[in-house]
Amino acid sequence: MLSTTRRLRSTRSLAVGLLVAVAALLPLTPAHAAYGAPLPIQQAIYGGVNNAQLLARSDGTLQFDDGNTKYKYYIELCRVSSFVAPSIRVAVNGVYQYTLFYNVGSATALCPSGYTATILSAEVNHGGTVANVSFTLVASDFINQVYRERTRTSTYDNPYN
Question: So which residues are the signal peptide here (predicted)?
């Protein structure tokens, strides 16, 4: 039979061993960021004579994670009368990151009858703190033999900063 001191040491050693094993496993569990409520993204660019002609529009959502390093977007980009296919320039914290391009898509409720939208979506791990994300919709017209590029920018602040 073990003495009380030996039993106490054995119990203590077992407890310490279990704690070390649990602590070693904790970093292996991936951290899951929670995304906040979707923020609406809605942009439209008009051009042509008297700026009355819809060139392109985008509609969708943007969500930031509570860890301040990731965001995800879902955008429908509709080409209506843009001379060159529209695009969306994306900037994080005021610094250009990449461009999303229109590609022949499918009919959606966003586009007028006879026009199509491209679905653009991704989850982006920026790798650093995301204070804000800007989307610049780019479309163009060609009036009186003059090419004009039109832009509209919307910036969305991260609510977790």
Answer: 1-33
Assigned CATH topology for domain 39-157? Immunoglobulin-like (2.60.40)
Instruction: Give the model confidence (pLDDT) of 52-81 as tens digits.
Output: 999 999 999 999 999 999 999 999 999 999
Residues of the chain with pLDDT under 70: 1-33
pLDDT of amino acid 18: 46
Classify each residue of 70-104 as buried b or exposed e, where b means 16 or more C-beta atoms within 10 Å of its C-beta: bbbbebbbbbbbbbbbbbbbbbbeeeeeeebebee
- Domain limits, the chain: 1-30, 39-157
